[in-house]
Amino acid sequence: MQLDKLLQKHGFGTRRACRGLVRHERVAINGQICEDPFAEIDTNDLIFTVDGVDWPYAEFACLMLNKPAGYECSRKPLHHPSVLTLLPVQLRERDVQPIGRLDEDTTGLLLITDDGQLNHVLSSARRKVPKVYLATTKHSIEQAQVDQLLTGVLLNDEPEPICAAACEIAGEHLLRLTLTQGKYHQVKRMVAATGNRVEALHRESVGELSLPADLKSGEWRWLSTVDLQKLGYLS
Ligand code: URA
């Protein structure tokens, strides 16, 4: 792929701006400065460098973020900054968007991509991708509440009772539950239907992919091939 085109695809501005970056010797290919914006670059396993920062060549941007509280998942947030402001501007330029939404005060694993197919596969109601949440509750948790969540609770605007795919007591005020649907405020509404209240909510995993212990709040990283396999996206 031609270098100026490659840089544009990765969010470094217009083709003209990208040519300027190259001519000013700010771009290296596999560690070597390249001054020719029209050079044909082999994109296989390519790492390119702009202003000393390494970027993998990525046909699509597929990322995970440890979402902090106080950020909205919308691209056009109303009251709080968008989670997308936690990403480098080059990724925002690629039109990435969160796969599904977490509430402003929910923390934990959020997937973000510009790959429409990945977004579709993981959001599809038919695929029933399990998502595990850890909810901190106002009142201590009773086994009866867990049983209710497993057998199903009736939510406003839902014709049928909704049940958790799995649910366990993880502490006096801690509930771990697995959902395979993605309805609005689903955990909070389900827990409220049992007479308790969610005071904090954290997403631990999506499919087989768990939030890495070393990914700090507000940090992001590229999804690896293994991560995509855990999401059932690559075989
Ligand atoms: N359920 C909720 O209530 N909120 C979230 O952010 C995610 C699931």
Automatic annotation (TrEMBL):
**InterPro entries linked to this entry:** PsdUridine_s_RsuA/RluB/E/F_cat, PsdUridine_synth_cat_dom_sf, PsdUridine_synth_RsuA/RluA, PsdUridine_synth_RsuA/RluB/E/F, PsdUridine_synth_RsuA/RluB_CS, RsuA_PseudoU_synthase, S4_RNA-bd, S4_RNA-bd_sf
| Superkingdom of origin organism | Bacteria
Q: Which SUPFAM superfamilies match?
A: Alpha-L RNA-binding motif (SSF55174), Pseudouridine synthase (SSF55120)
What EC number(s) are associated with this protein in UniProt? 5.4.99.-
Q: Where is the signal peptide?
A: none
Please provide the record's keywords in A-Z order. Isomerase, RNA-binding
Its BP terms in the Gene Ontology are: enzyme-directed rRNA pseudouridine synthesis
Catalyzed reactions: uridine(516) in 16S rRNA = pseudouridine(516) in 16S rRNA
Which part of the chain is the RNA-binding S4 domain? Answer: 1-61
Q: Name one Pfam family in it.
A: PseudoU_synth_2
Q: Which GO terms describe its molecular function?
A: 16S rRNA pseudouridine(516) synthase activity; RNA binding
What does this gene product do?
A: Responsible for synthesis of pseudouridine from uracil-516 in 16S ribosomal RNA.
Q: Which family does it belong to?
A: Belongs to the pseudouridine synthase RsuA family.
**Identification of the protein by name:** Pseudouridine synthase
Source organism phylogeny: Bacteria, Pseudomonadati, Pseudomonadota, Betaproteobacteria, Rhodocyclales
